[in-house]
Amino acid sequence: MQPSVLLKTTVLRNIVKETCKSAVRNIGISNVRRSSFKVQDQKDFQERVKNSKVPVIVDFFATWCNPCKMLTPRLESVVAEKKGEVLLAKVDIDENTDLALDYEVSAVPVLIAFKNGKEQERLVGLQDVDKLRKFVNKVVDEK
């Protein structure tokens, strides 16, 4: 191997090593409890939403829905603030048409709050963070 090629190879190898070391140093590990889940079917909905000991916000959404995509991070951050006092269930209306029909979801996004297995409150459409926070707080604080 020519000296210039050997030098370039060594330099590149050192750059890769240093990059990998710094990447490893910056990885954080945390024990975050998931406060959201995707509903798989009606049985899953019954077990995880209707039978839940804590209130559950059900987000009826569609993958093609732009307002749904905008709502998701807002809603997830508000639910995360409650640290397990409320859960977020995501229901894709295209995968779970029967659930959408059962709860008369005719437009998306729709948020339905469940407490003790019963529907408590409903929000339709894209919402700002303040309105979402009020919605979630009302569900959590009601006895």
Automatic annotation (TrEMBL):
Residue ranges constituting the Thioredoxin domain according to the UniProt record: 1-141
Entry GO terms, CC: mitochondrion
Keyword Ion transport set for record: no
GO MF: protein-disulfide reductase activity
SUPFAM superfamilies reported in the protein's UniProt record: Thioredoxin-like
The UniProt record lists the keyword Aminoacyl-tRNA synthetase: no
GO biological process, one term: cell redox homeostasis
Pfam families: Thioredoxin
CDD domains noted in UniProt: TRX_family
Record's keyword terms, sorted: Disulfide bond, Electron transport, Redox-active center, Transport
InterPro entries: Thioredoxin, Thioredoxin-like_sf, Thioredoxin_domain
Family recorded in the similarity comment: Belongs to the thioredoxin family.
Protein name: Thioredoxin domain-containing protein
Lineage, broadest ranks: Eukaryota, Metazoa, Ecdysozoa, Arthropoda, Hexapoda
